[in-house]
């Protein structure tokens, strides 16, 4: 498994892999080609300018197939200086194989190298799969919060400075 920045060439694989769970937990609605390409261009621009978003494709096999996405947000409402938010989603064929846990470990290393002190995974209480990834990745329960839209999330955190952190 490898991680690399999302590219426009990933749009077809993303659209083909999207299912009801990704729509529900990550996308907020079914993706369209135009919307996906617009978002991927934004992700590419964030890499180019060193913006607060780092979106990766999770790639598996040879040739590498896009198995899902994972992103870091170094700035986001509710985060304090030094915190980074992690969000991930795998396509159905790739779930249940430990890939999300491995991807979280890789992005934690990257975030630590970029100066982040603590990683946060925000889990919807009705998403046990995401909660399992957070726990398997070594994150610990921190608190429940409500976002600006009054949606409830459980925060799991990992100290990235603790001797390379137990979460990677």
From TrEMBL:
Enzyme type, top EC level: transferase
Keywords tagged on the record: Acyltransferase, Transferase
Q: Which residues form the N-acetyltransferase domain?
A: 1-161
- EC number, UniProt record: 2.3.-.-
| PROSITE patterns, per database record | GNAT (PS51186)
| Highest taxon listed in the record's lineage | Bacteria
Keyword Transferase among UniProt keywords: yes
Keyword Acyltransferase carried by entry: yes
InterPro entries linked: Acyl_CoA_acyltransferase, GNAT_dom, Ribosomal_N-acetyltransferase
Q: Which GO terms describe its molecular function?
A: acyltransferase activity
Query: What protein is this chain from?
Result: GNAT family N-acetyltransferase
């Amino acid at each position: 498994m490898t991680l690399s920045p999302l590219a426009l060439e990933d749009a077809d694989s993303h659209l083909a892999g999207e299912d009801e769970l990704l729509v529900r937990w990550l996308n907020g609605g079914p993706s369209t080609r135009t919307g996906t390409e617009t978002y991927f261009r934004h992700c590419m621009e964030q890499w180019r300018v060193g913006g607060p978003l780092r979106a990766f494709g999770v790639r598996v096999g040879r040739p590498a197939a896009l198995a899902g996405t994972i992103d870091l947000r170094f700035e986001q409402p509710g985060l304090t200086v030094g915190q980074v938010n992690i969000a991930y989603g795998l396509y159905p064929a790739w779930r249940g194989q430990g890939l999300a846990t491995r991807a979280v470990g890789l992005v934690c290393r990257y975030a630590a190298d970029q100066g982040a002190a603590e990683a946060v995974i925000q889990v919807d209480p009705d998403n046990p799969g995401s909660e399992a990834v957070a726990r398997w990745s070594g994150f610990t329960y921190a608190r429940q919060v409500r976002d600006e839209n009054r949606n409830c999330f459980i925060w799991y955190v990992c100290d990235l400075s603790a001797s390379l952190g137990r979460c990677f």
